[in-house]
Amino acid sequence: MHYLFLAGIGNSEHDHWQRIWWRSLGPNGHWLEHADWDNPVADTWVDDLERCVGTLFGPKVFIAHSLSCLLVAEWTKRHGAADVAGAFLVAVPDPQGPAFPREAIGFGHALEGGLPFPAVMIASTNDKYGTLAHAQRVSGHWRVPLVSVGEKGHINLASSLGDWPKGRAMLDEFVASLKR
Length: 180
Known about the structure:
Layout: E1 2-6, H1 17-24, E2 29-31, H2 42-55, E3 60-65, H3 67-79, E4 84-90, E5 119-123, H4 132-142, E6 146-148, H5 165-179
Parallel strand pairs: 1-2, 1-3, 3-4, 4-5, 5-6
Helix pairs in contact: 2-3
């Protein structure tokens, strides 16, 4: 199984839970890089993801944070499921919300339709980039279960989660469910 880590705008810092998990997976962990992390354009990021997916043979699990949750949905609309086994989606932002970065272009239509592979959404009750009500709406549109983790902000480095063991346990449980 390949684990493909998809960070949000600005990329994930060295001590972000995504980076910690990625380092722990060795050769099964893959990090999607973008030429421009600060001015994301959906078309460009979708092309980056498609190129990366094309280099990995066998089942893949996307581990997406923030804007990259919308990237997963945009990529899926354009390219289908390929051999994606599932997606672990953390802190889905609201492209219509007041805190959504103006630099992010073309991600607004990602909320339409469902996902063609198993997924789980993880949300905080006090995320300034997407309310819990927004997460509930998106989980309904995408037809995926939603797990609330309480007050964890944007579930990022500022949330002081470290390697976020509870999140890793949720990921491990999700991956185990894909193998059944």
